[in-house]
Amino acid sequence: MDWQALLLSIKLSVITTLILTPISILVARALAFNQFRGKAWVEALAMTPLILPPTVIGYYLLVGFGQQSWLGQTLQTVLGTPIVFHFSGLVLASLLVNIPFALQPIQRAFEAIPDDVRDAAACCGLNRWQSLWKVEIPLVWPGVLTAIVLCFSHVLGEFGVVLMIGGNIAGETKTLSIAIYDKVQAFDFDAAGIMSLILLIFAVCTLAFTTHLTKKIGVNRG
Amino acid sequence: MIRFRFVLFFLMLFAPTCFAQSIPTVAAAANVRFALDKIQQQFEQDTGKQVRISYGSSGQLMQQIKHGAPFEIFLSANIDYAQKIVDAKLAPPPAKIYAIGRLAIMHNKHVKLPLSNNLAYLKQELQQGKIQRFAIANPDHAPYGARAKDVLQAIGVWQQIQPKLLYGENVAQAAQFALSNASQGGIVALSLTKAKGFSEKADAVAIDAKLHPKLTQAMVLLNNASDTAKAFYAYLQSPKAQQTLLDFGFDLPK
Amino acid sequence: MVEPFQGLVCQINTTTPIFIEAEFDCRNGEITALLGVSGAGKTTLLKILAGLIKPQQGEIHLNQRTWFNSQCHLHLTPQQRHIGYVPQHFGLFEHQTALENVISGLNHLPKAERHARANDWLEMVGLATEQHKRPPQLSGGQRQRIALARALAREPDLLLLDEPFSAVDPQTRKQLHLQLLKLKSRIHCPVIMVTHNMREAQLLADHLVLMNNGRILQQGTTDEVISQPNSITAAHLLGNQNVVYAKVISQDQSKQTTQIQLGSHQFCLPDPQVRHIGERVGCLLPNELNVLSNSAPIAITLDIHCHYQDGQYRQIMATIVGDHTPLTLHSMPELLRKTESSQAVWLLTPTDITLL
Which SUPFAM superfamilies does this UniProt record tie to the protein (chain B) (predicted)? Predict the structure, then answer.
């Protein structure tokens, strides 16, 4: 059982979700409430990670952010550490790959808010931030929760991208899914089995917990 | 109270990885895994220092290093990939040969076919249709795969066996395929067949070294190497490490 | 010194999101109804007044304060206008209690006062006991009253109601009408109410603005507009379908009367407008068939084609003898029974007939 790998996976999931959720809320709101030229293109772009194979995404990230690229070198100067083959690279990759998972449910939830409610909020004297905080977020909360769960579990199981730009470095980029893969190659099927089971139980528990939470919120609404 | 638990949780998340960052990383070809793991343990016992090892196919590791992967030592399964790193000015010459690799033919215990060091039965078994799937490492970037292909060509079965081949992404994955019930065996690194518990699950026979070009395994110490990495690099050439390599079926360079 | 107008003054001209060309005003404390069919532009105009939609050209002033002026590029947001708005489906915040909903609109008050003010208004609409319930737990009528309380508790400079009573059943609607009438004395701002129900407009509104295809057809006091529509379209919108075409026979300019031929009848009507001989003119006739009035000098013979019971009234389909235009009339059942034949004589005074 590779506890370091498990912790690394959880750390990656938590950090990615924490960064992506607030950004997604704001972007989803902007997309839901505004019509502008090229909106369809923006939405299609946001969906691209869904249809691209993770290894392709990993490859482009490697080429685009590797130390041989301008972008990679700039980021390295800014952040102080290189991106590829480092945890920060995994975070960046996870953020990009999970945009559709975070954005979609939240945007649908915002779109479902009746116009009347938004109009009434504005005419009650609530400015955009007050409206977001007091009226809209309580209404879109199930969508946000879905996004958080989808994001979290997707990152937890992320393999293809991590493999491409991670480098399987213990404590840095060796997430649980990579560790399982590694154990299989070392013929340590027992360890692989245990880790897979833990990952499964963790994922199922997270799902059950959030489903329960969503129902509870629904009940509170009366 | 809840806030405190939250903070603690976050500290826990960051702790192990902060610690890990100071330990140097070694990139090693998949075939040396079991031998190198043992050498790593011995190194830690003898010097108290630690290294982290990442295994993969030599070709892939070379690409990663070229793209900036922070490895400090690269143990390749052939000399070419190690030389490419030197040519790219990422490591000072020369690439040091640390072992000569050997191939083995293997299958799991459920497959009731004979094994020989010159693959004498393989042609017949193919003609009789007893082999549906056969595993080797990917010749494109795994040296052991390329050598396996050489062997199969040398005994004249390449055309027949090619449509039935399973390619492992590295030689360890090839061994995993060869172990599974989905194949009737494969050609893998001899060192992998020396792993603990292997003999309970599968049979293997070393392949005659004359059937393929030498598997000259070379390593380089990269430019960014730390003192611990340098120490490990030297340790790999010590008699104790060499004995371990011999135990796992490698030959030593003259 | 002319006293400055206290109330809402607006002049709007725009083509997005739809075509609107409107100019009207409304005094403080008065209710103006925007009446028209769906798609007439009433809700859009209401949203323009609220500041939710920005028109291309025009001005909106309230109590001498400018809310919108296209020339000066001034456009106040809804938040800056301090209005009360009740959308068609109430727009309540489902996750908050009734009390919290009303408090939502009171951010401009110091925290200490909000609770008390919200409580007062909930009491005034009769929902003090339900204040801790959430909208899903309340009936349509109760939800409407919360929306109203939320808007009124703000003591807004302008109250906007978008078909406030259309989403509830007729019984509840009557109660809500009564509620609004009772509250009227407490409302000191102009009230603009969108409706497609003429009866509602008659009941609640002081002024009526008739809208069609984004334009104002007619405006004035409710009584004026309903009794004297100025065009056939206006008449139709007000529910009067009885327009018959007559021919001008002669005019007397000194007496300001016109002699017309209607079917096989001829009679004289007061008419300030100048008309040409032989001109075709539309006549708006009442909806009610009156056969008893002794003092009515105009008698029109009708061919009755069919009649059926509708509630208390008898609905009649008839034509004027000599004309083919179908007329829809209603009358008390007893009156019709008196005429066994398929004809009836309709007694009218000159003021009953409007020349368009």
Answer: Periplasmic binding protein-like II (SSF53850)
